[in-house]
């Protein structure tokens, strides 16, 4: 009996302890819930106040941006007709002021390489409309002339524009000849040099006309007159004078094969001497016809596979429409030696030759002269992210920057102010499935290229040895 009573008392104690625990737990949870509800109310109230404040600020900014576009750009909607990126009001003001910036360039002479399309074309137009005389180099003279002829104000500045075609900067001999022509024959001074030409795709100079220039033949002849007459004669004379000399000869021979090439050249020279007289006559005829066949030819974009067998030819019209979507994308092991040499010839060696040979025309103690190298962020060492699929182009752009960084101080002693400019977002790129669109139009890119020149002429403040991006000097 005693054992049974003890079991009952134990059961009652356990039940009472359980009830006490349940009650305490219930009280604790109630308090917790009440505290959480209060905290939630406080959080909700804070969020409402925060979002209302942010909304007010955003509305204010939107109103300012809309007013800015209504007053300056005559646009009713919240959008920018010039830039596809949304810019803050301060950036809009800067870009718009630079867009309308003018400069007295009367009497100034400018040379722009790669001035047929895009930012180079806009640079030529802006220089012409501000009074400068412009010399333009391009591979495709007829197409370049056609673009300028169709401008509404062509009649105002047509006598101040000279176009020189078939200027393929892979042919460094032609680049040196053109510089010699400017120094010896054509110009007495040069005020502005813009190295804008750059390599993105590979071309061949075998073309076939697929555009109609019959309606503008007289106007185009005006722009190409000096190129087809005086420059042609100069080149013919240079070929005949330098046929057996090495002034314009540029050789690229690897060290590994140098000894083998020397032995082969000794044997070849004996045979070449026998055929030299025959080849001289052929070379003369070829050089004469080289400049006369432009109207019979047009550009073809050549896309070559690694094995070198398959070629895809695209006519010039397709190039004009599709060039924005084309970019050379390769890893180091995929890049051919010829592509490497072409990138450096066009992006680095040709600008170097222009800077070196034309200094004689730019030496002046009376006024400032300007050299602009158009570069990209891929040529910067302090850029955190660069395109890893274009190492050969990145190398050439870094070399282009180094020309300015190294020699700007020396050229400044002759009042020649050299700078690099990143015009920002010049082309569309399709890269590893990702597509980045154009941030600015080419007029905006042109404004960024010419800004150091316009500031120097308008204010007298001349910068040199700097890398400009977004109208500001940034690190190399």
UniProtKB/TrEMBL annotation:
Give a single Pfam family match: adh_short
Example GO molecular function term?
A: oxidoreductase activity
Q: Where is the composition biased (Low complexity)?
A: 260-294
Entry-linked SUPFAM superfamilies: NAD(P)-binding Rossmann-fold domains
> Can you supply one Gene Ontology CC term for this chain's record?
cytoplasm
Q: Could you tell me which residues belong to the region Disordered? A: 259-299
InterPro entries assigned = Fungal_SecMetab_SDRs, NAD(P)-bd_dom_sf, SDR_fam
Q: Which PANTHER family match?
A: OXIDOREDUCTASE (PTHR43544:SF2), SHORT-CHAIN DEHYDROGENASE/REDUCTASE (PTHR43544)
Name of the protein:
Oxidoreductase-like protein
Organism field:
Anaeramoeba ignava
